[in-house]
Design a protein that fits this description.
By secondary structure, the protein is of the alpha/beta class. It has one domain: Rossmann fold. Helices cover 52% and strands 12% of the residues. A five-stranded parallel β-sheet has the order 2-3-1-4-5, with helices on both faces. The two termini are 26 Å apart.
Amino acid sequence: MNGLVIAIDGPSASGKGTLAKRLASHFGLPHLDTGLLYRAVGWRAERSGEPPEEVAASLQADDLADPDLRGDDAGQAASRVAALPEVRANLLEYQRRFARQVPGAVLDGRDIGTVICPDAPVKLFVTASVAARAERRFQELRGRGADPIRSRVLAEMAERDRRDSERAAAPLKAAPDAYLLDTSDMDADAAFAAALAFMAGKGFRSAGP
């Protein structure tokens, strides 16, 4: 590692993406939402019929700009292709290259602390109850103008958790040395403050205000 690498893992709607962006801004580091890579692969593969591993091998930065990648359909597609070892292998170096930047980087996903950056000096595992996460996703979808069914959102969240945790290739789990941050009863500010306090305890403080 060439500097401060912050590895953030956790399930969908746990708040890890929001936390990752805030930490990146606070410490002046580039941020990579690695889940977006899998969303791009799954979304393109399902629409084009290309093999997912070939999409992963040819993925370009422009592929990450599609606004549809933020939707639930792309999220489900991501979870399906993320279980494929060939896809993970083809995206591995992309992620590690991003992490090797100077003065460091923030990466969030599901296997950052366990596979992509096992030597990262800071590892966070952000989680929350499935009920809390489903409610967040439900409210997010309503905010986009959708008309979701709460029970269906909960069922899909539980199914994705099962698929991500049980897959053979880099299953979702906390690294043994990761700080467990349960955001079930936290807002974004509280989660950010807890992460900063943990990092301060390890000697990492922003040079800014």
